[in-house]
Amino acid sequence: MKKRLAIFLSGRGSNFINIHKNILSGKITNAEIVLVFSNNNDAEGIVYAKSNNLPTLIMDHKKFDDRKKFDQAIVDELSSYNIDLICLAGYMRIVSEIIIDSYDNKVINIHPSLLPSFKGMNAQQQAIDYGVRYAGCTVHFVDQGVDTGKIILQDVVDVGSDDDASSLSAKILAREHILYCKAIDLFCNDKLCVVDDKVIIG
Ligand code: GRF
Fold this sequence. Notes:
- The protein is α/β, with parallel strands linked by helices and 202 residues long.
- It folds into two domains: 1-103, Rossmann fold (3-Layer(aba) Sandwich), CATH 3.40.50.170; 109-202, Rossmann fold (3-Layer(aba) Sandwich), CATH 3.40.50.170.
- The chain is 35% helix and 25% strand.
- It contains six helices and nine strands; from the N terminus they run E-H-E-H-E-H-E-H-E-H-E-E-H-E-E.
- Strands 3-2-1-4-5-6-7 form a seven-stranded mixed beta sheet.
- Strand 4 (85-88), helix 4 and strand 5 form a beta-alpha-beta unit.
- Helix 1 (14-25) crosses helix 6 and helix 5 packs across helix 6 (165-188).
- The mean pLDDT is 97.
């Protein structure tokens, strides 16, 4: 049975688009996108999803009293989709325990830094400001912290003396597109296993 993926996004959606293309081309196997969820009706990723006939769901977080009520409404909506994996792909909301507890070790995220360095927003600018020689990206399981979950895969890029946040972001994004697809393929083929709070591959 193919794993049923929900993609959560808030904006551009380049990781999502790339995941979709890799599923279509067979580079990611045993996976299908059954839902694209966004808190932002104007997200470019939603435009792509609709034009590719993928099911979409939009819920505006501003219409809910607090994060937990919003996340409970998401969990309620998701229940009929039988989701195996939630992929956060530029989803600009912190996910509460309401979602994490319902989808234990089934929510993954990609972050544009070598975690545990440079958590949170503007990770590429943080890397430039710190003066690191290497930066990169991390795919991790999502827990209740911000970018603190168990690491699945990482990739590294050089930081040149002429790099700024914009050029570094572009370098990292190219690697993100490859790394996220690898991680999703591993998950969907039952190659990821969590032992003693670490992710074992294979
Ligand atoms: C990526 O840099 C990702 O690492 C971060 O948000 C950005 C999303 O970009 N979590 P896109 O929407 O996938 O183009």
